[in-house]
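Below is a filled-in request sheet from our internal design queue. Each sheet records the structural input a requester submitted and the sequence that came back. We keep these sheets so that new team members can see what a complete request looks like end to end.

REQUESTER: design group, bay 2
PRIORITY: normal
MODE: inverse folding
CHAIN LENGTH: 72
BACKBONE (tokenized):
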């Protein structure tokens, strides 16, 4: 799997979990203390996040980090 595909699959997982929690991008951004554009970049597969930020994101979504990192 190449980097671009990995980031897109990760972004899809983030969006799925955000929608399950009935959150908008704006609401998730507010919880994380980031911009809505940053959340959109994550979901669009354009943001290469650090593991620390991924952990913070998983806590913001109240899901295990593994949920975001499993690619089917």
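RETURNED SEQUENCE:
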């Amino acid at each position: 799997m190449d980097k671009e595909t990995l980031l897109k699959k990760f972004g899809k997982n983030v969006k799925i979990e955000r929608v399950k929690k009935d959150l908008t991008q704006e609401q998730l951004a507010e919880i994380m203390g980031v911009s809505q554009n940053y959340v959109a970049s994550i979901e669009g597969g354009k943001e290469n996040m650090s593991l620390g930020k991924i952990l913070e994101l998983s806590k913001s979504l109240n899901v295990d980090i593994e949920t975001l990192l499993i690619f089917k």
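SHEET NOTES:
- The domain at 3-63 is CATH 1.10.260.40 (434 Repressor (Amino-terminal Domain)).
- The CA atoms of residues 7 and 41 lie 10 Å apart.
FILED BY: M.R.
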